[in-house]
Amino acid sequence: MPYPQVTYKDTVFNGPSLLKRQKTTISQVTVKAQLKQLRDSGRYDCFKLQWHPVYDDKSMWPVPKSLFWDSDIGKWIEGACYLLFESYDAEVDTAVRELVDMIRSAQQEDGYLNVYFTVVEPDARWSNIRDQHELYNAGHLIEGALAHREYYKNDLLMEPILKYVKLIRSVFGPGQSQRHAYPGHPEIELALLRLYHATGEQDAYDLAQYFIEERGNPNGQDGQLYYDWEEKQRGDSPWMRPDPYPVAHAHWYNQAHAPILQQKTIEGHSVRAVYLLIAVADLVVLDETGGKPYRSRDEYLKAAKTLWDNMVDKKMYVTGGVGAISAWEGFGRDYFLPQGTNEGGCYAETCASIAVMMLAERMLHLELDSRYADIMELCLYNAVMTAMSLDGREFTYVNQLASSDEDKSVRHDWFECACCPPNLMRLFGSLGGYLWDYGYRDRVAHVNVHLYTTAKVEFDAGGEKVTLEQETNWPWDGNVSFRLVAPSSVDTVVRLRLPAWSRGEFTLSPPCHDATAERGYLTLPSSYTSKHGSFEVTIHGFEPRHLSPHPYTNQNSLAMARGPIIYCVEDADHPWEENHFRDVVISDQSQVTEEKRTVDGTDEHFVALRTVGWIRDMGVNLILNLVESNTLQGRIVNKAPEFDAET
Amino acid sequence: MPYPQVTYKDTVFNGPSLLKRQKTTISQVTVKAQLKQLRDSGRYDCFKLQWHPVYDDKSMWPVPKSLFWDSDIGKWIEGACYLLFESYDAEVDTAVRELVDMIRSAQQEDGYLNVYFTVVEPDARWSNIRDQHELYNAGHLIEGALAHREYYKNDLLMEPILKYVKLIRSVFGPGQSQRHAYPGHPEIELALLRLYHATGEQDAYDLAQYFIEERGNPNGQDGQLYYDWEEKQRGDSPWMRPDPYPVAHAHWYNQAHAPILQQKTIEGHSVRAVYLLIAVADLVVLDETGGKPYRSRDEYLKAAKTLWDNMVDKKMYVTGGVGAISAWEGFGRDYFLPQGTNEGGCYAETCASIAVMMLAERMLHLELDSRYADIMELCLYNAVMTAMSLDGREFTYVNQLASSDEDKSVRHDWFECACCPPNLMRLFGSLGGYLWDYGYRDRVAHVNVHLYTTAKVEFDAGGEKVTLEQETNWPWDGNVSFRLVAPSSVDTVVRLRLPAWSRGEFTLSPPCHDATAERGYLTLPSSYTSKHGSFEVTIHGFEPRHLSPHPYTNQNSLAMARGPIIYCVEDADHPWEENHFRDVVISDQSQVTEEKRTVDGTDEHFVALRTVGWIRDMGVNLILNLVESNTLQGRIVNKAPEFDAET
């Protein structure tokens, strides 16, 4: 299975583009800015197992402030290794080596490898699987080790990690003396499946499968749900509960309210929920590509699709943000999608949209359908890229559609719970792997192009190279030029995504009469590609369009989009605005004009939109400038209650 | 201060009317149906202090299922005594006497009088003031004793209650050995102020004042908020919290996040919040009528008005329901008013709207303004009367605007937490006191008429009787005939409410040139009333009207009203409907016709409305019958996205 975290290396971003600019910023600035944050906060040295003042802080329960420091390091190593592959940096290289040394030195005799439960509460290992992130941390260390091995071609990190996995495998499982548990925060499942794919380590596969299958078993441990059982073991009152649990025993917060095969709606903490689904999808994909058989491939596929559909159709913002509810950083009920936290919703965590991209990429392997790739692209441009400032130094955690005085949408240079910034870094580090997937078998090669940008991919086809280049000004216009170089002994099929908003309309030059379009992908057969090494597609649908939310959302709003970009109006561009556009309305009857603009301080162009709005109940005409999200002090605009061209 | 729970005796409902019909049902059916529920559930005998199987149920914390049984008895006694006054019933009379005997026998040597903490947890008295309802129960016993004394003219219940109040007074207060606490569920404050008004018992006044002033003191006990202090005394983990606390230390649930004078928005459990405000208003009213002076009358008045305004302007449904949030049975953020629990809101507890009526009545004494009486009437017809079935045997607790398959709006014959049914009974028992208030001083009498119905009030004016009768078909039309009989030695001023929806328009016959209209009340001077013993007012505004919610609510709905009645469409009247009208829209451009109908099984008339609606996105025309809420399977209808008369 071609994980994007592996195949990214085959892609070069070889021309000016929005993605390349952000990727460059991340590899030149962000990776070091985050390294500085790791050093300043004490995380960098945590594997030295020294005492740190933060360990004295007992104000948080059950998640002390340093509980997931291990994962911050793991994610930074993972991202740094992807970026090193693309452009070497001595400071980053040195830091990775130092960190690996420290991690190696922190491993206990028996393989255990966790800072908090070695330094602070050594007697509490594995005592709170529900809340305390030991397995989550392990998962990110595994992913870090995989990237490290890819780049450094050695096992300095992999070796202790494999030892740790062996230990974990011995602790968890169906055996009588084993814990019948599954992580409160899914992550290790997908990491273990990547590990299995890279190393063939059977323990990794079995453990991931066990975690997925055992999850939500109501009688798993001594006839009880594991989390209830372990709560009693700890002697906790059943009324003790972490802040994100809206009521006692809200096991849906952890997706443990039912086995995954029985879940009909996606619930709880959004990152946990989507990470779990990624692992479910991986299990199905691996089954197709040589993994061990397990209970029921079809059932797991159905579960993944059911929950994907519920998420996308009923619980996703127009930007690809998911997780309306701040209280549990997660999904609300169907169609409950308020625009701002001051209206009761729109948490839309950055990590959650990154996870949606990862899941979409997996789903594309199970079912080539542009509905997955459309969402992947939607998230990328409107919920993930927007989560970082132009200079690469500031980030969002929450991605509201509407700013307010009570909770202004602004970026920060770091967070106490610092999951989002390094997640964004590692996503961009492996972004090449999301653009396309490819394969070769029996003299037939294929490339499925999911995302358009200026880039080149090269892969092996029976000992020879296939190269596909694309060049485009996407996302600002729909024209994409391709150049394919493939050996004549190989039949090469190229599939091009036709986004839903294009309504399947495109122009291909030279034309191809054998081309077929199915489920949002245009297939160019080898008879065509062998004749036309260069071809050009123009995807239609780059006119500005208005988007209305589903009526059940009760959101009386109107969004504007153009191609894959969702626009917003920002306070920064409208100095007259005092209430974050809460009283400004637009109408889909108003004219919209396009305007070429330049990103401040660069020669990068983008397309802004301009329309007329009104202040509600006042009838004052306003010229509104809509831009892709930049300063983040804006909102999706409200819909005019009725349109009156004369007001 | 003329509490409606005292003055109700001066009013006779002397003709056919919607209110009289419901009142009669309550006194003939409901009071006995509830008595049966008390007997069947074990509540009736609870003051015998025997063990009951429910006491073994430890599944609920910190509020065991029987914790407020005392209050159910107190409320039933209170309501029963009001109803006995109006129509004697031997069964009810016998039950009240038996209950009083049992209560007397349950009092402990030192005056303590609480079932749960005598039978089940005798060592835990006063240990959890935040959650465990001892003071709430005491409050309802006080109110029961007040009604009992009024009807029976003896102190059989008042005597033990006064003894209990003395004990409570000794436990709570500013003294060094006293608890600096205040009830988690406000209620006793308003009960104590009624007790003070009725008996002059200074301890009652002082205790109420103390509870109100001390509430939310961040340094009240040993430099801490009392609730934090007592939690530590109990040895509870700070992470133990009851289900309605969305996060640890959510003291706003109990209105203890700040002293009442510093609160700017109404927060938390809605019944608690409004009961507290009633007591605040009482404190201000009593100050005007001979009560003891206290810190600052003006500040308390301002607090009551600030929180009233926040509630009515930003947190109230079109029906007068308050408390959008099911999780804590209380107020959500400003403008957060979803229509159904399946949309994230609309708890709108019956007791909360009853409390709003009680508060409105108090506010009218502080400021004669129809904005209070309008809300009182809105609640009465649309959130309180609707909470009982026509037959008087079934009730709602939650009053959604929109039913759904997940949570159908239906009535039940009883509830485990049975606060609403007896609350409705005692409200109707004392309803006469809400119709009007009156007074006499220095040869000048006045009657302020707040609610129109067919009724008569009689009161003493310097030893002589003043009688005012009104006769009307309200709420179906606006014509009201008055007959005033007053001694010639008394100048009588009559003030008539002009509801906001009438836009102050009325016709008076015979006309009065000296009449003044101010803040929604028309004042008829004694020069007029002395000449015209009979006069007739016709309040305008009985045409059907459409109501749109504030745009910040994001509710794309359109309500229909006529006079004080809010209409809804009900599943029961539309057998074709399968989704509780979620997909049906109406337009304020459509014609609305009126239709006289008869309540099933009676000869009582009402006005139904009829308009045309569409199924959204389908363009199917539908004739919709809108009725005042009856079977409760309907909703306020959605607004048409755009009106097109041709579809």
TrEMBL record, chains A, B:
<dbReference type="Pfam" id="PF07944">
    <property type="entry name" value="Beta-AFase-like_GH127_cat"/>
</dbReference>
<feature type="domain" description="Non-reducing end beta-L-arabinofuranosidase-like GH127 catalytic">
    <location>
        <begin position="17"/>
        <end position="431"/>
    </location>
</feature>
<dbReference type="InterPro" id="IPR008928">
    <property type="entry name" value="6-hairpin_glycosidase_sf"/>
</dbReference>
<dbReference type="InterPro" id="IPR049049">
    <property type="entry name" value="Beta-AFase-like_GH127_C"/>
</dbReference>
<dbReference type="InterPro" id="IPR049046">
    <property type="entry name" value="Beta-AFase-like_GH127_middle"/>
</dbReference>
<dbReference type="Pfam" id="PF20736">
    <property type="entry name" value="Glyco_hydro127M"/>
</dbReference>
<feature type="domain" description="Non-reducing end beta-L-arabinofuranosidase-like GH127 middle">
    <location>
        <begin position="447"/>
        <end position="508"/>
    </location>
</feature>
<dbReference type="GO" id="GO:0005975">
    <property type="term" value="P:carbohydrate metabolic process"/>
</dbReference>
<dbReference type="InterPro" id="IPR049174">
    <property type="entry name" value="Beta-AFase-like"/>
</dbReference>
<dbReference type="InterPro" id="IPR012878">
    <property type="entry name" value="Beta-AFase-like_GH127_cat"/>
</dbReference>
<feature type="domain" description="Non-reducing end beta-L-arabinofuranosidase-like GH127 C-terminal">
    <location>
        <begin position="553"/>
        <end position="593"/>
    </location>
</feature>
<dbReference type="Pfam" id="PF20737">
    <property type="entry name" value="Glyco_hydro127C"/>
</dbReference>
<protein>
    <recommendedName>
        <fullName>Non-reducing end beta-L-arabinofuranosidase</fullName>
    </recommendedName>
</protein>
